[in-house]
Design a protein that fits this description.
- The protein is α+β, with helices and mostly antiparallel strands.
- The protein has two domains: 242 residues, Bira Bifunctional Protein, Domain 2 (BirA Bifunctional Protein, domain 2); 96 residues, Rossmann fold, CATH 3.40.50.800.
- 37% of the residues lie in helices and 21% in strands.
- The chain contains 14 helices and 16 strands.
- The strands form three sheets. The chain has an eight-stranded mixed sheet. It has a five-stranded mixed sheet with strand order 13-12-14-15-16, sandwiched between helices.
- A hairpin with a 4-residue loop joins strand 15 and strand 16.
- Helix 11 crosses helix 13.
- The radius of gyration is 28 Å and the shape is elongated.
- The structure holds adenosine-5'-triphosphate and magnesium ion.
Length: 426
């Protein structure tokens, strides 16, 4: 019987073929955060279970069934983080980062949720998250939306994503709405599915999020949170809309947009695509002014968003079908070798080229295959220059772009490459 060891369900390897596109995207994300003045924070993957129980809320799917919890050797209840905002808030409070100042922070890394794996839904997935602390005005909510819009523009995705907005009000406003919503659901109990009936007790707002076709017309008519906002919350929301109107960003207001996590207040938004089937939310975010108070006596306004990187890459690859040269690694120079010296001369030449022109990638074929095969591999991997070390110690060089080839000495070769790659050397 085969006992092949396999990766855990819902956890993927990013293979060497795929890393160039990840790095390409990561460079764009880094550039984006730089342009908007956000600083990176690197956070632990393990956090106390209690952090998420308090922040995300007991009634969410994450806490109820998706956490990777365990007890460590000292008996502490720890978990693999299911999202980044809670840890980010913990770190900000613990390190007093907002003492008399604001903070603009981003992070990227793996998150863990025990969900049913499918296209665009993994158990280990990667989030790029951006959080802004100690700024309570609507302008920072709009800034976050600008950032995501910029990113989609940069990636050529603008026409494939749409922005939906809503306001969840404050906790008190939500409470008032909740009472009316419960009355509405009780009056239509016969239409509710099993999942929704369970949610009646725990998290009735989330019922609005249901995709069950039989419930849609009832949900459309349910009491809307936007009608329960007081003046301050309404002004906040109107100003967010006004700022993004001025920037010409199209959006729709979706009164049923509630977001999965409990800690959101006021502005919430999602960027959705129709290209990925059911897993269409590429980015989700909003304001969470109430979160800090769950840990801290003092309030700390905050807002942020998170993008699922695997989903974003899936969208990019679905639309552009793998045709960007930057999504593949190819060496500039490959050294193929016919000399019988255990690679001594080939490695020496490679080192000379690297130390003279350090912008180039130089790869020695150490496969031990026949020369013909080495050349075939080099061409297949789309390198630019092949340098062959002949049996008699002489060098032959192929410029694959111009198809020219010449026999060349060591010094001449380096001079030639220096000239050829002038553009890199600046
Ligand atoms: P969804 O509605 O798809 O379950 P969510 O509301 O649970 O998303 P958030 O917790 O707000 O999502 O996370 C932000 C983003 O992270 C999502 O918009 C999505 O792109 C990505 N994401 C969330 N869960 C997963 C997952 N299991 N696998 C891959 N990406 C995910
Ligand atoms: Mg989810």
């Amino acid at each position: 019987m085969s006992t092949k060891t396999k990766a855990i369900r819902g956890m993927r390897d990013v293979l060497p073929d795929e890393t160039p596109i990840w790095q390409w995207l990561e460079n764009k994300l880094r550039r984006l955060t730089f342009r908007y003045g956000y600083n990176e924070m690197r956070l632990p993957l393990l956090e106390p279970v209690s952090l998420f129980e308090r922040s995300i809320g007991e009634a969410t799917d994450i806490i109820a069934k998706e956490m990777y919890n365990f007890t460590d050797k000292s008996g502490e209840h720890v978990t693999l983080r299911p999202e980044g905002t809670s840890g980010c808030m913990r770190a900000v409070l613990e390190n007093n980062l907002c003492y008399n100042k604001t903070q603009r922070i981003w992070y990227q890394g793996p998150m863990f949720r025990y969900e049913r794996p499918q296209k665009g839904r993994l158990r280990q997935f990667t989030q790029f998250g951006v959080e802004a602390f100690a700024m309570k005005g609507p302008d920072i909510d709009a800034e976050l939306i600008f950032m995501v819009r910029d990113l989609f523009q940069e990636l050529g995705l603008t026409q494939y994503v749409r922005l939906e907005l809503n306001s969840l009000g404050t906790l008190e406003e939500r409470q008032q709405h909740r009472e009316q919503l419960l009355l509405w659901f009780e009056a239509h109990r016969d239409i509710l599915d099993e999942e929704s009936i369970k949610r009646l007790e725990t998290n009735p707002l989330r019922i609005l999020d249901s995709k069950n076709p039989a419930m849609q017309s009832m949900l459309e008519q349910a009491p809307k949170l936007l009608d329960y906002l007081n003046e301050e919350s309404r002004n906040h929301f109107n100003t967010v809309c006004q700022i993004i109107d001025c920037a010409g960003i199209p959006y729709t207001i979706n009164p049923r947009l509630v977001r999965g996590l409990d800690y959101y207040t006021r502005t919430v938004f999602e960027w959705i695509t129709d290209e990925l089937g059911a897993q269409g939310t590429v980015c989700g975010g909003g304001r969470y002014d109430g979160l800090a108070e769950l840990f801290n006596p003092k309030a700390l306004p905050a807002c942020g968003f998170a993008i699922g990187i695997e989903r974003l890459l899936l969208l990019i690859q679905t639309l552009q079908q793998n045709d960007n040269p930057l999504w593949h690694f190819s060496a500039n120079v490959v050294i193929t070798n016919e000399m019988n010296d255990d690679g001594l001369y080939a490695q020496t030449i490679a080192e000379k080229i690297r130390s003279n022109i350090n912008a180039l990638s130089v790869v020695v074929d150490c496969s031990g295959s026949k020369l013909k095969r080495q050349h075939h591999t080099a061409r297949q991997n789309q390198c630019q220059i092949i340098v062959t070390i002949n049996k008699d110690h002489t060098l032959r060089m192929w410029d694959l772009s111009g198809a020219q080839q010449l026999t060349i000495g060591e010094k001449e070769l380096i001079n030639w490459l220096q000239k050829y790659y002038q553009k890199f050397l600046g």
